[in-house]
Structure formats: structure tokens, C-alpha cells
């Protein structure tokens, strides 16, 4: 048991160190990374599609890197916006780590990219524990997932600078209790802004871009209740990469669909 925690502590400590270096490297290039995390199907890609278009419409060069266990479907969808897009296939790993992101940033995104949106692997557990060197961490949840999820996944919601509620066009049909959701979010992360959005109606898309550009301009962000994942974060063992247990994402797996 003690040994397992030691391994996790070492993995998280190493990741934090790499993430810090990556944050500095991105800043030196004038690029702000935005880490989007949620469970699968919450609507990350659907929201990112209009967000990429809206970011470009403000004259801000943006790119997107999207991670999945398999398929380049999301990259194909996102590339329709005209933004540079890269698909990362994680080879079975359920989250991105700073080293994975770093391995995909040689010569990419194009110089002058001001915002790099990173769509993490769909999962509310493991991605939460790994800092990717982002400036802005956004945790998303849809109205069909249940108001109690912030309480069930306190790390994912407790480390967010911004919480985005998605699919508000379905709010009535899902009988979603927004007041209960808000109370649960603020129990694990007091004061964190909550932004209602819908990729269907466009609600909140412009405001999300406002948040991103403010972060990119160095605005003071909400201070999350948790500053980093506890070293004893409750990671399933399968989340801790180790020799022979997981294949690291291979940069050569990446596809870069052209718009
Ligand atoms: N009604 C509605 N459906 C949505 C919305 N956003 C996404 N979806 C649907 O939810 C499903 C999952 O969306 P996707 O973007 O792939 O989720 P991801 O796995 O988080 O990237 C798809 O069938 C989308 O069409 C929304 O705002 N409203
Ligand atoms: Mg997706």
C-alpha cells in the first residue's frame, strides 16, 4: 500500500515539474493553454467547435489538440473550424500528462498561436490529477449527468478555474436542478465561476471566449479550492503509468487533419 502511494507521489511530482516547465515554455511563445476536462459525451468537442470559430473571429490565432483512446473523429470535427488541429491517441491511457503534451509540441502549433485548447481524454477521475502546464483549467458537465457529480468528483471540480455547464437546451427535459448543482460546485470549490452553455443554441460561447482571452491577457483568475492534486490523490492503479502497464502515447500516432 505504502509502495503504491510512493509510486503515485513520484509520478505526480514529476508531472508537476514538467508542467511548470511547459507553462514557462508556452508563455515564452505567447501561447496560453486551456485544459478542458469532463466525462465522455459532456459536449467538449461540440462546444469547442463554435469556440474555435468565435476565437478566430476576434482575430486571435487558436489551435486545438484533442486526446482520445481511439479514432480521429474529434480532430476531424474541430478542423472544420479552420484552426490547426492535432489528434493525440493515448494508446489506452485514460488521461493526458504534461510529458505527453510536450511531446506533441515540437514545431506545433504554428508560431503566433495565442490560445491552445486541449481537450483531455473523457474522464472525470485521472485527468484531474495531472497539470498540463495550462493557464486555465475548465471542468465541464452536462445537464444530463446529475447535479451530484461535483460532490462525487471533488478533484475535477475543486481544481477548476471555471466550471462550464453544457447542453442547457436540454435542461428542462432533464429536470436539472441548477440551484442544487451550483451549491454542490461551490461546496467543493467556493466562488468558482459557473458558465451555462449550449452548443445547440450558442449560449455562453462568447462568454467562454471572454474568459479564455482574459486568462491569456494575464487577468487574475479564480483561485481554486485545491491548488494541486494531493500526492495521495485517489487515482485508480490503472492511472499510474509504469513499465509495461501502459503504452505511452506515440507522437507518430498523431494525425493532423487539414481543414
Ligand atoms: N442537445 C445538445 N446536445 C449536445 C450539446 N453538446 C453536445 N451534444 C451532443 O452530445 C454528444 C456528445 O458530444 P461530444 O461533443 O462528442 O462530447 P465529448 O465526448 O465531451 O467531446 C453528441 O451527440 C453531441 O451532439 C448541446 O449543447 N446540446
Ligand atoms: Mg470529444
UniProtKB/TrEMBL annotation:
Keyword field: GTP-binding, Hydrolase, Metal-binding, Nickel, Nucleotide-binding, Zinc
InterPro entries tied to this protein: CobW/HypB/UreG_nucleotide-bd (IPR003495), Hyd_mat_HypB (IPR004392), P-loop_NTPase (IPR027417)
The keyword Cell cycle appears for this protein: no
Pfam family, one: cobW
Nucleotide-binding among keywords: yes
All residue ranges annotated as the CobW/HypB/UreG nucleotide-binding domain in the record: 35-195
Disordered: annotated segments: 225-259
Protein family: Belongs to the SIMIBI class G3E GTPase family. HypB/HupM subfamily.
Protein name per the record: Hydrogenase nickel incorporation protein HypB
Native organism taxonomy: Bacteria, Bacillati, Actinomycetota, Actinomycetes, Kitasatosporales
Amino acid at each position: 500500500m505504502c509502495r503504491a502511494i510512493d509510486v503515485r507521489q513520484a509520478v505526480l511530482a514529476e508531472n508537476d515539474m514538467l508542467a511548470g516547465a511547459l507553462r514557462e515554455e508556452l508563455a515564452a511563445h505567447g501561447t496560453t493553454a486551456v485544459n478542458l476536462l469532463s466525462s465522455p459525451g459532456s459536449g467538449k468537442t461540440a462546444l469547442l467547435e463554435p469556440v474555435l470559430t468565435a476565437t478566430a473571429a476576434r482575430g486571435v490565432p487558436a489551435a486545438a489538440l484533442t486526446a482520445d483512446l481511439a479514432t480521429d473523429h474529434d480532430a476531424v470535427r474541430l478542423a472544420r473550424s479552420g484552426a490547426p488541429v492535432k489528434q493525440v491517441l493515448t494508446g489506452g491511457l485514460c488521461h493526458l500528462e504534461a510529458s505527453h503534451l510536450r511531446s506533441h509540441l515540437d514545431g506545433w502549433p504554428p508560431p503566433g498561436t495565442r490560445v491552445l485548447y486541449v481537450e483531455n481524454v473523457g474522464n472525470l477521475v485521472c485527468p484531474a490529477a495531472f497539470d498540463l502546464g495550462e493557464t486555465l483549467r475548465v471542468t465541464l458537465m452536462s445537464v444530463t449527468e446529475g447535479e451530484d457529480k461535483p460532490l462525487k468528483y471533488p478533484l475535477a471540480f475543486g481544481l477548476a478555474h471555471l466550471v462550464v455547464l453544457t447542453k442547457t437546451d436540454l435542461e428542462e427535459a432533464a429536470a436539472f436542478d441548477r440551484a442544487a448543482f451550483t451549491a454542490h460546485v461551490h461546496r467543493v470549490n467556493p466562488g468558482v465561476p459557473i458558465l451555462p452553455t449550449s452548443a445547440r443554441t450558442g449560449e455562453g460561447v462568447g462568454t467562454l471566449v471572454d474568459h479564455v482571452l482574459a486568462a491569456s491577457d494575464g487577468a487574475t483568475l479564480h483561485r481554486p479550492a485545491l491548488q494541486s492534486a494531493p500526492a495521495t490523490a485517489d487515482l485508480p492503479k490503472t492511472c499510474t503509468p509504469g513499465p509495461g502497464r501502459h503504452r505511452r502515447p506515440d507522437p507518430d500516432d498523431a494525425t493532423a487533419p487539414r481543414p
